[in-house]
């Protein structure tokens, strides 16, 4: 495999509460996949136990000190320090399936400037339902240009990423506006459906509220987006954000049933639950649209991807 590959594992999610054991699993997977490239840890957690783990069990892994940096910023610092022509990102709370490394690298070697794999939460039925809520933009998982990617499972030509970094904005991760920027500038993110990871499930209410906030915040990061135009309506836009999310959920659920590993009888049950779960997102939308919402800091703690339209 091409030696000019850097795999970056982050520790921001560990700082948010993911266990050290989960980070260990991600590092074990990354180091077993990379034979002649390098593995880096973008360490923003500041956890001395993690630093000790790296010294004792993963001495070949390069630690990039990103203490105090945000999720996106830590990853960009690691990209700047990487030696590879290609940079692959695997979050510390994600476990890749066999072939993950090879699938991303092959697509990049064949000419893709950026790649996005398929992410699904751990767990059976509820893991699948929550995957629709947070990663539904990947459904169905097939080869195409992505409107949004998940930074927890992605790859880039390093020169493209450094030349076109994620735009600023009050979001924990700005994958959606970044994907739109890359698409407009002729370097789109291409889906690699075979590059799959399992993502640790998140605290439900925290995750949903933050994702709702980020629906609006995506428009602040990139005012060209429809989210930006809707946000100008103020609180009157809240039901529009909610309704559009519910419609997208239903469409993606049906199209991605097999990718989600759902049985046919489970689909109508999931369809009934999704609008109810989205009510928590609606609360986040209202918080963002309310006076002072943009300065509240909620989005700086939000999860991997704002849900695109």
Detail the topology: elements first, then pairings.
Elements: E1 5-10, H1 12-16, H2 20-33, E2 38-43, H3 48-57, E3 62-65, H4 71-81, E4 86-91, E5 94-96, H5 100-109, E6 114-121, H6 125-135, E7 153-157, H7 158-163, H8 175-184, E8 189-199, H9 204-221, H10 226-231, H11 238-255, H12 257-260, H13 266-289
Parallel strand pairs: 1-2, 1-4, 2-3, 6-8
Antiparallel strand pairs: 4-7, 5-8, 6-7
Helix pairs in contact: 6-13, 9-13, 11-13
Protein described:
Helices cover 48% and strands 16% of the residues. By secondary structure, the protein is an alpha/beta fold. It has 2 domains: 5-199, Spore Coat Polysaccharide Biosynthesis Protein SpsA, Chain A (Alpha-Beta Complex); 204-301, no CATH class. An 8-stranded mixed β-sheet has the order 3-2-1-4-7-6-8-5, with helices on both faces. The longest helix has 24 residues, at 266-289. The radius of gyration is 18 Å and the shape is globular. It starts with a strand and ends in a 20-residue tail after the last helix. The model is unreliable at 301-309 (pLDDT under 50).
Helical region count?
13
CATH topology of the largest domain: Spore Coat Polysaccharide Biosynthesis Protein SpsA, Chain A
Rg computed from alpha carbons, rounded to a whole number of angstroms: 18 Å
Strand content: 15-25%
Share of helix, binned: 40-55%
CATH superfamily of the largest domain: Spore Coat Polysaccharide Biosynthesis Protein SpsA, Chain A
Q: Helix-strand pattern, N to C?
A: EHHEHEHEEHEHEHHEHHHHH
Number of structural units classed as domains: 2
Question: CATH first level of the largest domain: which class?
Answer: Alpha Beta
DSSP strand tally: 8
| CATH architectural arrangement of the largest domain | Alpha-Beta Complex
What profile does the largest beta sheet have?
8 strands, mixed
């Amino acid at each position: 495999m091409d030696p000019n590959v850097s795999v970056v594992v982050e520790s921001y999610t560990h700082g948010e509460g993911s266990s050290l054991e989960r980070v260990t699993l991600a590092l074990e997977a990354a180091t077993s996949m990379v034979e002649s490239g390098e593995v880096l840890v973008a360490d923003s957690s500041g956890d001395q136990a993690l630093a000790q783990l790296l010294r004792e069990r993963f001495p070949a892994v390069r630690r990039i000190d990103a203490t105090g940096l945000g999720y996106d910023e830590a990853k960009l610092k690691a990209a700047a320090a990487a030696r590879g022509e290609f940079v692959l990102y695997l979050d510390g709370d994600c476990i890749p399936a066999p072939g993950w490394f090879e699938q991303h690298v092959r697509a990049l070697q064949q000419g893709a400037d950026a790649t996005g794999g398929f992410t699904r939460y751990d767990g059976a039925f509820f893991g699948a339902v929550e995957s629709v809520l947070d990663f539904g933009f990947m459904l169905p998982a097939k080869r195409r240009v992505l409107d949004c990617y998940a930074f927890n499972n992605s790859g880039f030509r390093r020169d493209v990423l450094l030349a076109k970094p994620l735009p600023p904005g009050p979001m924990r991760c700005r994958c959606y506006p970044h994907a739109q920027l890359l698409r407009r500038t002729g370097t789109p993110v291409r889906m690699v459906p075979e590059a799959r990871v399992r993502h640790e499930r998140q605290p439900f209410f925290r995750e949903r509220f933050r994702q709702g906030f980020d629906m609006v915040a995506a428009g602040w990061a990139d005012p060209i987006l429809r989210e930006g135009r809707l946000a100008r309506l103020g609180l009157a836009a809240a039901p529009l954000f909610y309704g559009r999310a519910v419609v997208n959920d239903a469409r993606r659920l049906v199209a991605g049933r097999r990718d989600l590993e759902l049985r046919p009888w489970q689909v109508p049950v999931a369809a009934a639950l999704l609008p109810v779960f989205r009510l928590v997102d609606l609360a986040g939308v209202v918080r963002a649209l309310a006076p002072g919402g943009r300065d509240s800091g909620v989005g700086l703690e939000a999860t991997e991807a704002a849900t695109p339209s």
